[in-house]
Design a protein that fits this description.
Largest interface: A-B, 74 and 73 residues
Distance between the termini of chain B: 65 Å
Shape of chain B: globular
CATH superfamily of the largest domain in chain B: NagB/RpiA/CoA transferase-like
Largest sheet of chain A: 4 strands, parallel
Oligomer: heterodimer
Strand content of chain B: 5-15%
Structural class of chain A: alpha/beta
Number of domains of chain A: 2
CATH topology of the largest domain in chain B: Rossmann fold
Strand order of the largest sheet of chain B: 1-10-7-4-2-3
Chain lengths: 261, 479
């Protein structure tokens, strides 16, 4: 079966913001940037306090009972029919693509499928539902972009990041070779198969550096943590940022709230 | 040249994936050989599909294969009937051993001493060469890549390009050492030398063994895709031809071949069509000048019918063995085909081999993936490989009470410590208050965070907890 064609909602009054556990703990600035970008578009952002994790780590590790228990606790958080926006292709993909299967044959199957249909990766949502127009206020800069595999392949947003960066007049986007290749994160893969993951991230960093950029942006904090962590440990001249942080900083005159690293 | 001394497949411990993967990763020659070859194959594939509606074609390929599988039992019966009508003898083999015995019995009945082989992954699955050799029957590979691999006493490292792990220099040295050809970097010279040696073997072979790419039920035709002409020689020169094939290779109609062939050659080698496409429809007829006197088909199950029992795993059997999944796999590219220690390496191997050897033997296979999805994206018949990997991960830890595991050897990877960790993780994340308390405490005491985190910090710095969680910042904002 082909992936269903995406039908974007028109710009809503409100959205649910699902921050993801990585952003919650390690990159809250990226989450704040996403929220502020949405608010600047005139959208009221609802942040359900009881959000924890989408359940993906257990799911991809094969522990589906535990993944389902966590995911079920998240199904109560979105009672109104507002879109659910996620600043991550990976967690977005879990909710949009895998929730229906995870809950198939359970009392929650209808609810899970309904919620899945409302989940959007945030940059995709900003570009294609909000039709955001960005005005670049920053100094000239060169960046590379790493779109996560799940953002590219599960959420189908491979062209979104470059399109958003293309709106920034003073930003030059350079493309690294094999841009579509995985950075080697893969969640628990990085810990279960450290050598293979290490080989992958070392080549990813090398190609990013060869692109001429010294900074990169990405859709996903897993990739960010992986690529940045490797570059830092191996003293490579490459520093990353979540694309939402970057977009907010470039377009907001006084962006005190966004200083992630 | 780490693979020079790699043992034959039947002696490899599949479970030793990690040390082999590690060795390959730290072998610059292997890394370079694979990187270069895979980059070339990826760009050839892209070029071959240029201007085509690839998604529609993939849908077609997927549908053709699914339609065939949906009627598999009936189609196999029809195939048997048509093949028999065409004068081809049909044999059924439950497993690899039975398949080997059938081939041996045919050889013995003909008093055959030498077998020439066209490329066949099913015969690799059967470890046929080894089996025949132990029983005094010489089996010689005639596909150039397979020939090289056989000379080196190795196994194929790729299902389409068996010797892809070797560069020209390594091959030249091998041919020099084993067959006395001159050392040369001229690929044409090396190929010509090998061809000359093989020509004599074709002439003298008693039996030819080949694989099958598609078996057409309505006509009883065996289709064989190849580039070197060795497939045609194997199936026409010796007086007896034995084709070995998995039971899933059957398709209903002749017209199904066009779509599948267009996808297969482009996905595999970036070719619009291969140099040879053989359609074998029976032994030599009375008025014909050449062709074998006898043609046999061995239809091999070897675990396939157990895959067939499951609606989700069934997709595995759609595979047309193009190898595109391995060409695009970032893990395969880093570790090479031998690291897996299985007949089929790479993504398709990870979802197929557990059924052939059991999840207990192949327990490392489903986890050796970042689930990047490149394999599923390029698969010409749309096998959802990442989803099947997740399914097999679940099976290997018995992780889903709603969908009890059923693959042979399931649950073998479950250990109580990891199960407990996930249980605890699930418990905390299913209780939002507890989660906020825990993450809040972690943020507050973030300076006590350990600097070393197992495999992660072997290559990277540890991630740094933020001073305040997003939850806390949103809470402050609302006040």
């Amino acid at each position: 079966m082909s992936d269903p064609i995406k039908v974007y909602p028109s710009k809503p009054k409100k959205v649910y913001f699902y921050g993801t556990c990585l952003i919650d703990l390690f990159y809250p600035d990226a989450g704040m940037a996403g929220i502020q970008l949405l608010e600047r578009e005139g959208i009221e952002v609802l942040f359900p306090e009881d959000q924890t994790c989408c359940g993906q780590p257990a799911f991809t590790s094969g522990y589906h009972d535990d993944a389902r228990a966590v995911a079920r606790s998240q199904l109560d958080l979105f009672p109104e029919d507002w879109p659910i926006v996620v600043p991550s292709g990976s967690c977005g993909g879990m909710m949009r693509k895998h929730y229906p299967d995870l809950f198939k044959g359970t009392p929650d199957d209808v609810r899970a499928a309904e919620i899945a249909g409302r989940v959007w990766e945030l940059t995709d949502f900003l570009l294609n539902a909000c039709h955001i127009k960005l005005t670049d206020l920053g100094d000239p800069a060169t960046v590379a972009m790493h779109t996560s595999c799940s953002a590219r392949r599960e959420m189908g947003v491979g062209t979104v990041g470059p399109a958003l960066l293309g709106q920034l007049d003073n930003v030059e986007l350079v493309e690294q070779v094999r841009a579509e290749e995985c950075c080697g994160f893969g969640g628990t893969f990085a810990v279960r198969h450290p050598e293979i993951s290490g080989a992958m991230v070392s080549e990813k960093v090398a190609t990013l550096v060869e692109s001429g950029a010294r900074n990169f942006v990405t859709t996903d904090c897993g990739c960010l943590m992986n690529i940045d962590g490797y570059a830092e440990k191996n003293r490579q001249p490459m520093k990353g940022q979540h694309i939402l942080s970057f977009l907010w900083q470039r377009t907001n005159p006084k962006s005190e709230e966004a200083h992630d690293d | 040249m780490m693979t020079d001394n790699s043992p034959p497949l039947h002696k490899i411990d599949v479970k030793q994936f990690h040390p082999r993967a590690r060795a390959a990763i730290h072998n610059p020659q292997i890394r370079q050989n694979f990187r270069k070859a895979m980059d070339g194959l990826m760009s050839k594939r892209t070029a071959a599909f240029e201007g085509m509606d690839l998604e529609t074609l993939r849908d077609l390929g997927s549908n053709i294969r699914m339609r065939a599988l949906a009627n598999l039992p009936d189609l196999l019966e029809q195939l048997e009937q048509k093949l028999t009508e065409n004068g081809i003898k049909v044999h059924w083999a439950l497993d690899a051993d039975e398949a080997c015995k059938i081939v041996r019995d045919i050889c013995v009945a003909r008093d055959a001493k030498s077998v020439i082989k066209g490329k066949s992954m099913v015969s690799e699955e059967m470890e046929l060469n080894h089996y025949l050799q132990e029983r005094g029957i010489e089996a010689l590979e005639s596909d150039l890549g397979e020939y090289i691999v056989q000379l080196a006493d190795e196994t194929p490292s790729h299902i389409i390009m068996p010797a892809i792990h070797k560069n020209t220099g390594e091959i030249s040295q091998l041919l020099h050492d084993k067959t006395g050809t001159d050392l040369s970097s001229d690929v044409n010279y090396l190929t010509a030398s090998a061809r000359l040696q093989l020509r004599e073997k074709f002439r003298n072979a008693d039996v030819g063994v080949s694989g099958v790419n598609f078996a057409v039920a309505e006509t009883g035709t065996l289709c064989l895709v190849e580039n070197e002409g060795n497939g045609r020689m194997t199936t026409t020169v010796p007086p007896c031809h034995i084709a070995v094939t998995g039971i899933e290779k059957v398709v209903p109609n002749l017209e199904d071949i066009t779509g599948l062939l267009a996808l297969l050659t482009r996905s595999a080698t970036g070719q619009h069509i291969t140099t040879y496409f053989n359609m074998i429809s029976g032994p030599r007829k009375a008025d014909e000048l050449d062709g074998p006197e006898e043609v046999h088909v061995v239809l091999v199950d070897n675990g396939r019918s157990s895959i067939y029992q499951d609606d989700q795993l069934l997709d595995t059997l759609k595979c047309i063995r193009c190898g595109a999944c391995m060409n695009h796999c970032p893990v395969y590219t880093r570790v090479g085909g031998h690291a897996y220690g299985t007949t089929y390496p790479g993504p398709i191997g990870k979802i197929l081999m557990p059924h052939l050897i059991g999840l207990d033997e192949g327990q490392h296979l489903p986890s050796a993936s970042s689930l990047c999805g490149a394999c599923g994206e390029v698969c010409p018949v749309k096998i959802p490989i990442p989803d099947l990997l997740v399914r097999l991960r679940q099976e290997s830890v018995d992780g889903d009470k709603l969908h009890p595991a059923k693959v042979r050897g399931h649950g073998s990877k479950r250990n109580s410590v990891e199960a407990m960790i996930w249980k605890g993780w699930g418990w905390m994340h299913a209780k939002p208050g507890l989660y906020r308390l825990g993450t809040g405490i972690a943020a507050k005491f973030r300076n006590l965070q350990p600097g070393r985190l197992g495999g992660w910090t072997q290559y990277r710095t540890a991630p740094k907890l933020a001073p305040k969680t997003l939850h806390q910042r949103m809470k402050e904002r609302q006040q």
